[in-house]
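We modelled the chain as a single entity of 69 amino acids. Its sequence is:
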Amino acid sequence: MHSHLHDEVHDCTELLRDALRDNGITLPSLGVDLPSFAGTYAAPLVALGNCNTATARKLAEALRRAATR
């Protein structure tokens, strides 16, 4: 795999983690989807992971606010 794809997926994951944190949201399982490095995907995937209902509601509210801007 090209190292720029490796760097890109890690950078993107951290950007998303920071943006979520700015909105008071933590996705505990957020990370790089390691199996996608071995798969036939065009680029590695970001795994959003699992979260509880309170976190899902916060995420939905943050997305709604952003959509109305």
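As a brief sanity check on the tokenised model: The helical segments are 3-22, 35-38, 53-67. Strands lie at 31-33, 45-47.
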